[in-house]
Amino acid sequence: MNTEKRSPLRIYCKNCGAPAGFDILHQTYRCPSCGEMTGIREAQKSVYEWRELQKKNTEARFDGQRLEEHDYP
Q1: Which of 46, 49, 70, 12 is nearest to 57 (CA)?
Q2: What's the confidence (pLDDT) of residue 34?
Q3: Which residues on adjacent β-strands are paired with residue 19?
Q4: Arithmetic mean of pLDDT, 11-39
Q5: What residues contact 26, with CB distance under 8 A and at least 6 apart?
Q6: pTM reported for the whole predicted model
Q7: Helix (H) or strand (E) holding 52
Q8: Domain boundaries in the chain?
Q9: Which distant-in-sequence residues (6+ apart) come within 8 Å of 52 by Cβ?
Q10: What does each C-alpha distance from 60 to 53, 55, 70 come to in angstroms?
Q11: Distances from the Cα of 13 to the Cα of 6, 33, 64, 71, angstroms
């Protein structure tokens, strides 16, 4: 699956790319399609990479303009 088309709010299987669900018992993400487990840190990294890509795309669209970044709790 193309990472640019993925939702940052979903965690995807690192093995087959299907959306993974949270396994409360094991405190990790598990793929319902292939059973692969994806850890919390891997999921955070995926979201971080997506966010960085979006920042770069935004900066490219507004080249030369001043942009401010805000973090919300």
Answers
A1: 49
A2: 92
A3: 12
A4: 88
A5: 37
A6: 0.53
A7: helix 40-61
A8: 9-59
A9: none
A10: 11, 9, 18
A11: 12, 9, 38, 28
